[in-house]
Amino acid sequence: MRGAVSFVGAGPGAADLITLRGASRIAEADLVLYTPGTTDPVWLRGQVRVDAELVDHARLDADELAELYRRLASRRHRAVRLVAGDPALSPDLREQRELCGKLGLDVEVVPGISPVSAAAAATGNAVTELGGVDTFVFTEAEFDRVRELAVEGRTVAVHAPAARAAELAEALAGLDPEVPVVVAYKVSRSDEVLLRTTLGELAAEVKAANLWRHALFLVGDAVRESKPRAGYAPRESEPGRRWTSRSWRSAKSGESWSKRGNGSVAVVEAPEPETPEPEADVPEPAPKPAAAAKTTKPAAAAKKQQPRARTTTAKRAPRKS
């Protein structure tokens, strides 16, 4: 038996969003590495063994963390390292796995719910939709790349301090100010703040809400509060709208995104319905003879007399005892 480290997704913040497998690994561990910003230490202490060791790995440098892994390997202990959200989105996962492998530790990765998924779910939206080809992009506050990615018509997720909202809005200044934005602050926690705004109002709204710590910004069409679904044909008075590199533009049902060979984006409109070819001329029917027209008068008179005949008969009928 060798020592092992399980990288467990801690989810977006709420303790009950950790998977059952992740909770099982926490309960079995000899050592749990966590950060208070990721997991509530009071809750965590109630989930681990009495003799388990809890370490805030944010206080450790690279050498101290490596020494901790060596100790695990020599004692053949099991450890859990809690990773915010989903470990698959952690930029240092590969490096940590390689380090554990060199030290003779087995490695397991337990998936978790990403803050992006939690934020989209909190808005009642999905980051992708059937019938659409919007591309979802995850980025780590690289504002120089956000502008490049956003112009391609994608929905962009940016993890960054809320205090940098004005900087993000400036990086996207070339876009239409009406592009929808959702700011998810402490998503899934009891003190969660979910702010819906637009790119033009982003900085002012974040400042008014007094948000400054780490947050998630979702920018793009997928977080619009109401959006026509695939197959929905809007009336002329309620056109659907799509986000392009130039602006929000009205779109007819059936529009979709497509990429040209040079990487630019174009909106492909549905073809106009074909105009039916004119039918061949059909000769008008010949007028009815005059005699036929005369026969209509007696028929009409007969119809008028029928109600009177029925009324007379009804009066003469004897009543039932």
Automatic annotation (TrEMBL):
Biased composition (Polar residues): 245-261
Transport listed as a keyword: no
PROSITE patterns cross-referenced by the UniProt entry: SUMT_1 (PS00839)
Transmembrane region(s): none
Acidic residues compositional bias, start-end: 271-282
Family of this protein: Belongs to the precorrin methyltransferase family.
Region described as Disordered: 227-321
GO molecular function list: precorrin-4 C11-methyltransferase activity
Provenance organism: Actinokineospora auranticolor
Biased amino acid composition, Low complexity: 289-315
Keywords: Cobalamin biosynthesis, Methyltransferase, S-adenosyl-L-methionine, Transferase
Pfam families found in the cross-reference section: TP_methylase (PF00590)
InterPro entries: 4pyrrol_Mease, 4pyrrol_Methylase_sf, 4pyrrole_Mease_sub1, 4pyrrole_Mease_sub2, Cbl_synth_CobM/CibF, Siro_Cobalamin_biosynth, Uropor_MeTrfase_CS
Residue intervals of the Tetrapyrrole methylase domain: 5-203
GO terms under biological process: cobalamin biosynthetic process; methylation
Protein name: Precorrin-4/cobalt-precorrin-4 C11-methyltransferase
Known pathway: Cofactor biosynthesis; adenosylcobalamin biosynthesis
